[in-house]
């Protein structure tokens, strides 16, 4: 859970809940509710602020426990494929775009 990862990283940095909230510019009560898993879907903006103070990449907060970077990237590729399919582009059209891109690179 995101909240538990934030809490673990915060404690590792020896920051109190108040210190992290203050440095990140977020409400202490909201941060507390995230850490206790009362709130489940913090915004990307909130996570970015927390990640900056904790000196971690935002993906370290989002990634599921035990999930490696490759697995996370594979999920991003799957999502991209879904978006391409939803846009109506065919595989041949995507390949054509890639071919044109590579010829200009």
Summarize the structure.
With 105 residues, the chain is mostly helical.
How would you characterize the overall build of this protein?
This protein has 105 residues and is mostly helical. The chain folds into two domains: 2-62, lambda repressor-like DNA-binding domains (434 Repressor (Amino-terminal Domain)); 69-104, no CATH class. 72% of the residues lie in helices and 0% in strands. Helix 2 (17-24) packs across helix 4. The longest helix is centred in the last third of the chain and has 19 residues, at 69-87. The model has no long low-confidence stretch (mean pLDDT 84).
List keywords for this structure.
2 domains, mainly alpha, 105 residues, single chain, 434 Repressor (Amino-terminal Domain)
Describe how the helices and strands are arranged.
Blueprint: H1 2-12, H2 17-24, H3 28-35, H4 44-54, H5 58-62, H6 69-87, H7 91-104
Helix pairs in contact: 1-3, 2-4
Which residues form runs of ≥5 with pLDDT under 50? none
Biggest sheet record: none
Q: Tell me, briefly, the overall form.
A: elongated
Q: What value does the Rg take, in angstroms?
A: 19 Å
Topology order in helix (H) and strand (E) letters: HHHHHHH
DSSP summary, beta strand count: 0
Number of separate helices: 7
Q: How far is the N terminus from the C terminus?
A: 41 Å
Strand content: under 5%
Average predicted confidence as pLDDT: 84
Structural class: mainly alpha
CATH superfamily of the largest domain: lambda repressor-like DNA-binding domains
Question: What is the CATH architecture assignment of the largest domain?
Answer: Orthogonal Bundle
